[in-house]
Write a structure and sequence with these properties.
The protein is of the alpha/beta class. Helix content is 27%, strand content 31%. It contains nine helices and 14 strands. The protein starts with a strand and ends with a strand.
Length: 262
């Protein structure tokens, strides 16, 4: 299984060499997407990933730095069917689930795509699904559990949660993806026993994250910082050094196109 970071930046102003949050898991010839920031399909394609093998897409929340590339990803999948008989057959007749925390946003996205060339007629189907806490996917050896977080605050009575983190289990390995969170405490019940923790730094200092993990005696393998904000981007080497002084060389700072074998 390979994990590729397609975008490692938070929703700051455009940063050279960095795009908004997205990563993809390659598992037995299938692609599983987690968030879809700007240019995610471009980065995947030029890195040699076969976008036509997309199996499912998971979106943590609907801020632009997490979904801005989703319409283009879907458009690219359609475009590939007209460029190669192999890609065309890979997608023909398939149904691809897209897990969204808001069907209103999904419907609006489809309305935009309907006004592209050909009315976005495809030889595959898209199944937009709104999800809640709990297991949202369990197929092809991939087990995805969603848990709401407080990035968008608590909803009003009766309203659904709109921001989530994921615990992903595959081939005996566990990946925890923070999405955006109010604090790392939002992930407390997800972290223990994970092999890889993907933690956002767009809203948090690396030393605070490391200190919490130590203080709470969390058991985990590697820690990869992603979704970077201005503070960490302004001093990547210094911020990494701070983290490694606390947790050693199992800490990495993600960059676009980083590949990790799990």
């Amino acid at each position: 299984m390979t994990l590729t970071i397609l975008g490692s930046c938070s929703g700051t102003e455009p940063i050279e060499g960095r795009h908004h949050s997205s990563f993809v898991l390659e598992q037995e010839g299938r692609l599983f997407w987690f968030d879809a920031g700007e240019s995610c399909s471009y980065t995947a394609h030029v890195q040699g990933l076969d976008v036509s093998t997309t199996e499912a897409i998971f979106i943590t929340h609907t801020h632009m730095d997490h979904i801005g590339g989703l319409p283009n990803l879907l458009w690219t999948m359609r475009k590939l069917t007209s460029r190669s008989p192999e890609w065309n057959e890979n997608l023909r007749g398939r149904t691809i689930p897209v897990y969204m925390p808001s069907m209103e946003v999904w419907t609006s996205m489809l309305a935009i795509l309907a006004h592209t060339e050909g009315g976005f007629t495809t030889n595959f189907d898209l199944d937009g699904q709104e999800y809640e806490d709990g297991v949202i996917y369990d197929q092809h050896g991939i087990h995805v559990t969603a848990q709401h977080n407080l990035h968008l605050g608590e909803p009003k009575d009766g309203d659904p949660w709109r921001s989530f983190s994921f615990r992903i289990e595959v081939d005996g390995k566990v990946i925890v993806y923070s999405g955006d969170v109010r604090g790392i405490e939002d992930l407390d019940s997800l972290i223990d026993g994970c092999d890889l923790l993907l933690m956002e730094t767009g809203h948090h200092a690396v030393e605070d994250i490391c200190s919490y993990l130590i203080r709470a005696e969390k058991v985990f393998g590697k820690l990869v910082f992603t979704h970077h904000g201005r503070a960490i981007l302004g001093n990547l080497e210094g911020e990494l050094q701070k983290a490694q002084q606390r947790l050693g060389d199992r800490v990495l700072v993600a960059y676009d196109s980083l590949r990790l074998e799990l």
